[in-house]
């Protein structure tokens, strides 16, 4: 690393000229400047394609350019004119490629030929599609279906996802983990218990009616930048935006609209957050408890004094259960505990609770800072408790809004990609397709990893994604993949997961969503569901990277035809010939959700799936919205009691990456340039622990097992983050997360609070027995 300080404070708003410069740069880097900018004009338009980056809602009346800097980067990355052909693998063995960084692997370009790993030469060699399908089928037929795992990453369309879950179930397994197991599964477990819906209740319309928004643990300017338009409009109406985040994220501080000529020419920018609370990592439950306690006590006083109630007593009486127990628990929680765990003062929480009480309609929005914790499920339930206190669910401008990750991750769950059999319409599938679906629980992401370690998993099929890198504990997991009998990766770009292969391995390149998808009946449309349960059509515009590519539905159908016995009720070829027939099948399977699917999905703005909780219909076992009492406010309850040198590490995305795909080493909004090997910590912690600015350190996980999880070559920098907290990048730090360190009920890896110690690079490691 150069001796220059890589941290240069970013003082500009999110968006603005910096965004325009970054878009132009990535188009040039991927050699697609001219046709790339033409293709971008179709992004997120009713007649165009749904962006492959985030899952934020797409409006019916889009802006001239309805994309953000990061969406443009994702497009350029996919339509790149760089390709990987058979020559590339002739030059590089997989062992050689293991020394390449993720950025170098993906930068090599699009995969264009189906490949099989050749054990003798340790290279991927070209194969035909039919040989690949037959080879995969042979391997799968030789094992028990419950020894195979069918992972999905969250980008594949509703059509592909429906076929994929059917393939797995007809073969005989519910082992259908997806990326939401590492992401919003805490939401999917928490909300059915509280409001009877696994997804959020907020739609785009609500942004126009809300008085107040609470943001928890989401880096909006980087990870859902198009939402800044809604936030900016809301701010112009005087809406309060109250943010809880250990870090001052640029997009939640201020924003200049790169699509507004006026704002680009003048220094105009909108202040986004009206209150910004930098709480301790894992301090959310305590902070929310503090606000709930105040609201309940203010309401107690109002009843005593005969002044207007603070809580919505009528809503609580008619719609909810568990209030008394919850109120008692909040009254009993002490301020000492709340302030210690959240590192926020009673006054600060009072200011937030005051705005909450003043507003007629409040929305809560949240991301990975809430879900990726040991208490991820309880965090979400506390958010729900806060909203229920004033009836802030099921009225205009109010509701809960989990900001989902991948562009169709919510939709994949909707059409049956789930390891939980109770969430899949097994009886309907049985009736429609005349087979006996498996009824046993399948494996989630963490369980699949454990299965690989234990030898219970023998085959892994990945529909997109970079599973082996996205998961925790690389040191433990990496060697285990070699013992698998079969690995199959369906992908657009080369990544490290493709190098960590089984004894038989296939790498199958597919069309991306931005490319024209021609089948027997002509050019195809697909569909995706966004974070607001709104379903949109998507049609590709770019010419395919190669004639050899198959679409994802065609690849799934190819494997299914080779693997499964003939079934007169299932015509895979007809589905591939015309995706409208897959949509008909989805409608038959979910008539309440997808009525008139084919005639509605291309309408501007898409169509909304009905969410009962948004209409105050509670699909919970008791038919009520439930207050849930947290069993503890202690995020780190599973950790050994540790000394003052232990810090809590969060692993997050930078501004120039999409998950494991790192476009450049810069994280502009946080002011980090040219490196990701940094750890950002409080100045006082650096002084207390004796580290100089920029010093090289080793970082090691504090855990109870014998695995020495550590990372060298990291540099510490002073940053505006609460004492005791430290930030590093995902996926570089994933090797530090123990597989067993996950949310209690949802099994989401707790990637936002890893107990760690640092030591100077020159000090040798302690023996394993003294790691604690
Ligand atoms: N450009 C781009 N867009 C993306 C992605 C991408 O990688 N790049 N990824 C997509 C995916 S799959 C997802 S899931 C989303 C992820 O979007 P985010 O949910 O924003 O995920 P992270 O980048 O991990 O950032 C988490 C945020 O939580 C904060 N945080 C950390 N710990 C805590 C805590 O204990 N409490 C609170 N209140 N805050 C905390 C961090 O400071 C950070 O601001 O974005 C999606 N969109
Ligand atoms: N430490 C830490 N770990 C985390 C997280 C964190 O915040 N911290 N976040 C977690 C979260 S929220 C998520 S969602 C996961 C993400 O985990 P994944 O979804 O598994 O990973 P991605 O990086 O999104 O996958 C990128 C790869 O997908 C392939 N791809 C891209 N487009 C397509 C396509 O259209 N079709 C197909 N078939 N393949 C395609 C490309 O080959 C690319 O290399 O990571 C999780 N891991
Ligand atoms: Mo995600």
Automatic annotation (TrEMBL):
Its cofactor is Mo-bis(molybdopterin guanine dinucleotide); [4Fe-4S] cluster. Residues 647-701 form the Molybdopterin dinucleotide-binding domain. Keywords: 4Fe-4S, Iron, Iron-sulfur, Metal-binding, Molybdenum, Oxidoreductase. GO terms for biological process: cellular respiration. One of its GO terms (cellular component) is membrane. Residues 110-477 form the Molybdopterin oxidoreductase domain. It holds the Pfam family Molybdopterin. InterPro entries: Asp_de-COase-like_dom_sf (IPR009010), MopB_CT_YdeP (IPR037951), MoPterin_dinucl-bd_dom (IPR006657), Mopterin_OxRdtase (IPR006656), Mopterin_OxRdtse_a_bac (IPR010046), Prok_molybdopt-oxidoreductase (IPR050123), YdeP_MopB (IPR041953). It comes from the Bacteria. GO terms for molecular function: 4 iron, 4 sulfur cluster binding; formate dehydrogenase (NAD+) activity; molybdenum ion binding; molybdopterin cofactor binding. PANTHER family: PROTEIN YDEP, RESPIRATORY NITRATE REDUCTASE. Belongs to the prokaryotic molybdopterin-containing oxidoreductase family. This is Molybdopterin-dependent oxidoreductase alpha subunit. It comes from Paraburkholderia bryophila.
């Amino acid at each position: 690393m150069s001796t220059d300080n890589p941290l240069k404070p970013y003082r500009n708003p999110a968006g603005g000229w910096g965004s325009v410069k970054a878009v132009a740069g990535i188009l040039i880097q991927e050699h697609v400047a001219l046709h790339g900018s033409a293709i971008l004009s179709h992004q997120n338009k009713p007649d165009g394609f749904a962006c492959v980056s985030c899952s934020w809602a797409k409006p019916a009346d889009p802006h001239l350019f309805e994309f953000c800097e990061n969406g443009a980067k994702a497009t350029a990355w996919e339509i790149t004119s760089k390709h990987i052909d058979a020559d590339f693998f002739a030059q590089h063995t997989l062992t050689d490629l293991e020394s390449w960084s993720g950025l170098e692997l993906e930068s090599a370009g699009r995969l264009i030929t189906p490949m099989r790993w050749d054990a003798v030469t340790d290279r991927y060699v070209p194969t035909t599609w039919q040989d690949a399908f037959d080879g995969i089928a042979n391997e799968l037929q030789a094992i028990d279906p419950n020894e195979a795992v069918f992972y999905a990453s969250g980008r594949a369309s509703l059509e592909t996802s429906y076929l994929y879950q059917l393939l797995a179930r007809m073969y005989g397994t519910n082992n259908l983990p997806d990326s939401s197991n590492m992401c919003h599964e805490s939401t999917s477990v928490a909300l059915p218990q509280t409001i009877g819906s696994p997804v959020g209740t907020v739609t785009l319309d609500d942004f126009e009616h809300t008085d107040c928004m609470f943001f928890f643990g989401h880096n909006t300017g980087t990870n859902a930048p198009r939402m800044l338009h809604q936030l900016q409009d809301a701010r112009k109406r005087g809406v309060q935006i109250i943010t809880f985040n250990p870090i001052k994220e640029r997009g939640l501080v201020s924003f200049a609209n790169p699509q507004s000529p006026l704002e680009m020419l003048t220094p105009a920018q909108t202040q986004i957050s009206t209150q910004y609370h930098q709480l301790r990592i894992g301090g959310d439950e305590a902070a929310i408890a503090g606000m709930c306690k105040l609201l309940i006590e203010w309401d107690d006083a109002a009843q005593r004094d005969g002044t207007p109630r603070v809580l919505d007593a009528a809503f609580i009486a008619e719609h909810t259960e568990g209030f008394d127990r919850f109120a008692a628990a909040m009254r009993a929680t002490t301020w000492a505990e709340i302030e210690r765990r959240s590192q926020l003062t009673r006054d600060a929480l009072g200011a937030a609770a005051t705005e909450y009480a003043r507003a007629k309609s409040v929305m809560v929005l949240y991301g990975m800072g809430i879900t990726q914790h040991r208490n991820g499920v309880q965090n979400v339930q506390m958010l729900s408790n806060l909203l229920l206190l004033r009836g802030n669910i099921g009225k205009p401008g109010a509701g809960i809004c989990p900001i989902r990750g991948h562009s169709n991750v919510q939709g994949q769950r909707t059409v049956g990609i789930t390891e939980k059999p109770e969430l899949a319409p097994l009886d309907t599938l049985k009736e429609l397709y005349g087979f006996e679906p498996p009824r046993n629980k399948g494996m989630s992401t963490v369980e699949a990893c454990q299965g690989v370690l234990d030898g219970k998993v023998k085959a892994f099929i990945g529909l997109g994604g970079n599973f082996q890198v996205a998961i925790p504990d690389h040191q433990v997991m990496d060697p285990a993949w070699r013992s698998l009998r079969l690995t199959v990766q369906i992908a657009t770009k080369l990544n490290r997961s493709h190098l960590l292969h089984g004894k038989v391995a296939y790498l199958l390149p597919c069309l991306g969503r931005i490319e024209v998808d021609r089948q027997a009946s002509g050019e195809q449309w697909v569909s995706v569901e966004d974070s607001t349960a709104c379903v949109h059509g998507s049609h590709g515009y770019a010419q395919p990277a190669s004639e050899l590519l198959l679409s994802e539905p065609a690849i799934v159908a190819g494997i299914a035809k080779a693997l499964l016995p003939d079934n007169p009720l299932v015509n895979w070829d007809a589905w591939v010939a015309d995706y409208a027939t897959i949509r008909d099948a989805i409608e038959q399977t979910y008539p309440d959700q997808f009525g008139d699917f084919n005639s509605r999905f291309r309408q501007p703005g898409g169509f909304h799936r009905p969410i009962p909780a948004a209409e105050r219909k509670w699909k919970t076992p008791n038919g009520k919205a439930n207050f849930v009492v947290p069993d503890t406010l202690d995020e780190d309850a599973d950790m050994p009691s540790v000394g003052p040198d232990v810090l809590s590490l969060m692993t997050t995305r930078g501004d120039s990456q999409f998950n494991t795909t790192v476009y450049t080493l810069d994280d502009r909004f946080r002011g980090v340039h040219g490196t990701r090997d940094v750890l950002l910590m409080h100045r006082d912690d650096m002084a207390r622990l004796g580290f100089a600015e920029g010093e090289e350190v080793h970082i090691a996980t504090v855990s109870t097992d014998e695995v020495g999880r550590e990372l060298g070559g990291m540099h510490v920098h002073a940053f505006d983050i609460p004492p005791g907290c430290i930030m590093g990048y995902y996926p570089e730090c994933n090797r530090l997360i123990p597989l067993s360190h996950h949310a209690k009920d949802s099994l989401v890896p707790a990637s936002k609070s890893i107990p760690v110690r640092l030591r100077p690079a020159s000090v040798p490691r302690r023996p394993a027995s003294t790691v604690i």
